[in-house]
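Entry 14. Ran structure prediction on the chain below.
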Amino acid sequence: MKNLEFKTYAVTNEIDLNKIAVECNIKKKYTWEEPLILQGELLKRIINEVNEDEIVLVFSFGSIVFINSAKEHIERFMSYMKKIKPDIDIENYRRFHDDYALHISEGEEIEFTDDYVQIPEMELFYPELISVVIAKSVALERIEEQLSKILDDLESKIDNLEKGKLNIGNKELAKITSRIVRHEYNTIAYIMILDKPDITWINMNAEYFYEQMSEFFELNDRYEVIKSKTEILKNIIDGLTVISHSIRGLFVEWVIVILIVIEVVLMAVDLLK
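Output, structure tokens:
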């Protein structure tokens, strides 16, 4: 088998694999743990023609991996995905992407680089495991940018606190909290960084390769950083909520005091009449 070229794009938060499977007449129920693999006639139904050894893997967490696909085939597939998932921006689908390659070099050891991985001989599990790792890596890149935007928004709220502008509405707090919860769901629960493909449980070589490649792409380390930042975000929101509620409580107390004073003044006026 010749060398394989991988092109990976993170285009959305979630893709319904079963909807694509139904359209392709695939009689299988897909779960979050496994990608939808399209090749041969199945892929041809979508893009009309296929290249030799061309494969497309679609992941439920929003990443799509193209193996040996021409640019026009990728664009056709993205146009098809737009019909399945309208929120996909096909004009800017390259925003979060990575290119990688699998090189076969007989007699050589497995070697990882930023651009390719070299293997001594081809095994069936290599293309799928490489696709899983780079699909998760690009999805993390997308999530990392979303996290940065949330942090930037919170920074403006902290700046307002420093200026003495302490009043933050419940609606605004709820909106920020929902973004943090959604972010946490998309990373920790949905991308499943800590989960391993099924093949790694029954094939020691596959397990060793997957762990090596995951370490090279720093999946676990990036996951831990995101998890830690998420906890910091939640702590900041808790602090803002406490401040907001304290301000509202103080406001209510002052209103009560003012009403009591008004009532006392009215009673004094009545007594002086």
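Residues 219-272 form the longest helix (54 residues). Will compare against last week's run tomorrow.
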